[in-house]
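USER: Please consider what follows.
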Amino acid sequence: MPLIDILIPEEIGPVDECVVVTWLKREGDSIKQGQDLLIIQAEKASYDIPSPATGTVSAILVQQGEVAKQDQPLARLEVSQTDFAPTPPSIEPEPATASPSSPPSQVRASPIAKRLARQHGIDLTQISGSGTDGRITEKDIQAIIEAQAVSAETAAPAKEVRASPIARRIAREHGLDLATIPGAGKGRITEKDVRAYLDTLQKTQPEPQPTQPAAVPASDQVRSVPMAGMRAAIAQRMHQSLQDMAQLTLHTEADVTELVALRDHLKQSMPVTYTDLIIKASALALRQHPHLNATLADDMIQLLPDIHIGLAVALDAGLIVPVLRHADQQSLADLARTRTTLVERAKANQLTADEYTGGTFTVTNLGGFDIDAFTPIVNPPEAAILGVGRIVDKVVIHQNKIAQRSMLTLSLSFDHRLVDGAPAAAFLQTLKHHLEQPTELK
């Protein structure tokens, strides 16, 4: 009986790797076409993978908790001859002049391979794939791109290299020849191009042989957890953030006694939280300080017209940041409803890509864990992130008198390449004003 491989479906989009969360069928179990076979965890979400045909699970090739690559078979399915439709044999046509309207033959390629081929003008029909059943993989396309680069380098005459001043300085400091660096910015080499080239050089350098670590005693029962899926995506983004940005964190303390009173009053008629009030205050402050609602692209600071605030939500698998769009234009009640819905969908693993991408500023609240001040890491490509601590009662001097007040510590991390310390501090002052005098937040 024919065997077919179960792969990561192309319909879920480009996925370099995934973790098998659970198998819903065991080896030897029968399954119908369209019935869910397993659940995988990709970079930002989990997916139920249905069976492409009716048959019997012949072999499970990737166990629960293990990592699978894009073109790696997850399992094999034994299907009956009647349910298996083999590809009909091709018939050689009579030699004829090619017609522009003739449809191209079906090409099997991974989503990443298709995207790379499209970006570099590569004809997939001229490539023999190295993947399963001749499927064209990312590695196949990268090999062609590298070969084209070598060919172009040996054939092209020397010409003037266009590069930004920052790119030239970095190249000079590292002794790099700008002519060897590919430019993505319309032929103009940017800072990002040079840093990417440096990263490539570092990865190709031979690594020093590590010393043999001491053997772990068997009694310690060490358990290994794969760094993949959402956890791997978070690790990569946080490393990229600290590596690419000049991050600085400012802290300030706000007297939120009036905010506490406002929230106590409002919650009688709507389920508003302190996070909702802080998001609203942040959105109003960003209106007055647009340099905090910005991003850096090709050595240009882009001030973004819309204020889309992301809220960091902790999940068992990691962290995800659903986005409240046009937060400055929403009423407090609308913000509270939107935030509630997004958090519930995030915890149920039901967010769509549109709901966790496109943020321009992020708020992360650790007050529920009795944290006062911390150093949040900027969520690239944004310019800043606000860390919110706990509200704690303190004895302070208020209006020249000793009084007990509700105090809140705010921590603002920002990219010093886009924003200097004084403008960032001014943003915190404005935010503090909205929280201490919260009449505009209603």
